[in-house]
Write a structure and sequence with these properties.
Layout lengths: L2 H8 L3 H9 L7 E2 L5 E2 L2 H15 L4 H12 L5 H46 L1 H9 L1
Antiparallel strand pairs: 1-2
Length: about 130
């Protein structure tokens, strides 16, 4: 696949794909004889993982470390699992924090909805006018 095809398929801009390659996150992208990038299914798998890790808060530096360990083979499996376990803990903390924020938002919706209903009830004419308008 060309860089344009991969960009369309992954919703990543071509300059982002080039950046990932330059940073060593996609170190083995093949090239044609004329130097045009040719992405394969393995590259798409890596992009999927890179996006997942990045979108859940892992830094480019950490992702690069993970990729470098992966390139060294089976001897690094334990270290890679540990990186992912630590990242999983971080994601779970983020989810819990977001749940707390969501609870606060829901409380405020309930609070303001109650105030709005009370406001509408105080002035029955206003509610009737707004419903008709």
């Amino acid at each position: 696949m060309t860089i344009k095809q991969v960009a369309e398929r992954t919703n990543l801009k071509p300059h982002v794909l080039r950046f990932y390659e330059k940073e060593g996150l996609l170190p083995e992208v093949e090239r044609s004889q004329s130097g045009i990038r040719r992405y394969g299914e393995n590259d798409l798998e890596w992009l999927s993982l890179i996006c997942c890790l990045k979108n859940t808060g892992m830094s480019i530096k950490q992702i690069k470390e993970f990729v470098e360990l992966s390139q060294r083979g089976g001897e690094t499996l334990r270290a890679r699992c540990e990186i992912l376990r630590e990242h999983k803990k971080s994601v779970e903390r983020q989810i819990e924090e977001m749940r707390g924020h969501l609870e606060k938002v829901n409380d405020k919706i309930k609070h303001f909805s109650g105030q709005y209903e009370a406001y509408q009830g105080k002035d029955g004419r206003r509610g009737a006018q707004e419903e008709a308008g």
